[in-house]
Amino acid sequence: VKMAGDSRFPDVDTDGSEKNEETEIVVNVGGVRQVFYGDNLNQYPETRLAELINCLSGGYDSIFSLCDDYDPGKREFYFDRDPDAFKCIIDVYYFGEIHMKKGICPICFKNEMEFWKVDLKFLDDCCKTHLSEKKEELEEIARRVQLILDDLGIDASESRWKRCQKYIWKFLEKPESSYPARVIAVLSFLFILISSVVMCVGTIPDLQVVDAEGNRVEHPTLDSIETACIGWFTIEYVLRLISSPNKLHFALSFMNIVDVLAILPFYVSLTLTHLGAKLMELSNVQQAVQALRIMRIARIFKLARHSSGLQTLTYALKRSFKELGLLLMYLAVGIFVFSALGYTMEQSHPETLFKSIPQSFWWAIITMTTVGYGDIYPKTTLGKLNAAISFLCGVIAIALPIHPIINNFVRYYNKQRVLETAAKHELELMELNSAEGKAANSKSELEILAREGKEDPFHSSRLKVSHSDTFIHLLSEEKHYRTRLQSCK
Known about the structure:
Layout: E1 24-29, E2 32-37, H1 38-41, H2 48-55, H3 60-64, E3 69-71, E4 76-79, H4 83-89, H5 92-95, H6 106-115, H7 125-152, H8 160-173, H9 179-201, E5 209-210, E6 216-217, H10 220-243, H11 247-252, H12 254-275, H13 282-294, H14 308-319, H15 321-346, H16 357-368, H17 381-452, H18 457-469
Parallel strand pairs: 1-4
Antiparallel strand pairs: 1-2, 3-4, 5-6
Helix pairs in contact: 7-17, 8-9, 8-10, 9-10, 10-12, 12-13, 14-17, 15-16, 15-17, 17-18
């Protein structure tokens, strides 16, 4: 052990006579040696390397508070840190900014910057973005793990109603929590499909019946199936609302608003049918009911609650607003230009189908999107040439933004898969650490019991019980050890 008064360290500048600006030190980080001068390091006096210059006059207690080891003969400081990250961090002394190299974990790099006492403001903006993304990923993993732990944990201090409320919420909202929950999720999915099919089949004239007023209405059997589906949706929504931990957030959620829009038209139309005739004319009631029945198409969006693929698609489209905006702008410009050219070129033909520029918009839309219904088409040579150029430009305009949109979808889908796997691995690590903690306690108990007496049969039985208790999973004791959420090292 190196002591402050040890004769082996005669080179320590205890009187502080040597000027810091002229001091040369050698730093060895993970086997990589770097030479620094005081004039460079003192630009940022609050950093650890600058403190090394100033600590030479403070004795070895000051030196070893900053580094892992020190060679006074070479004036070489030793650090057991990441050399790759250190090579990036020292750029601040020469260039005033830091760039994180590819392949370095952002969280580990942040920890290295904190160790060397370099402020994060020197990190370049592009690297800060990468760091913030990694932080969001770790927070999402932590959130998922915490949700799973909350589902596994049972708080005995909670009331019976609170525990029942949590059970109903987990039963309806988390199909992966149990087998009955998965069955309920499948049933809900089937009810949505059946209701959508019934809505479509009910419009077939051959399956409709004539009521007392001579109007064609849906078949009574289909009406009964529709009523049963609405009853299921209503019970499901009410139970989810009652068991929701945050009812205001639940009511304002987009998917729950969709659920209300899928249920509400049935009860409004039922009310209008039985009570509306007394307040307004029968024809007006029928029109209102018909308009409300059209709103039943909103229930198809309920599938998004049970489909991770639809949720991923929605998120990808949300992240692709810029690309979708460019696509619409390209098409809008092309539609305006080619419809105007088509109208102008077709005016010389006596049987022209281009009566006006606004009417030509329809032709330009179906041409540039390569649909081509053929209800409006050019008849002159210049008009046909204009049509050929328009659909070629349409293909290019549609193809250009498609690749970024697909990339957003694939990136988000892969990210969700990675986060899901990382959360499972985190839980496995917590179980393993819990088992190792119990094993260490059992081992120490073994040693104590062995010292107390090897021939006591009571001790022997305790040894066996301790060994079997080693493998009990204690997920609730995650606070007694560090996980990868707390450190990437």
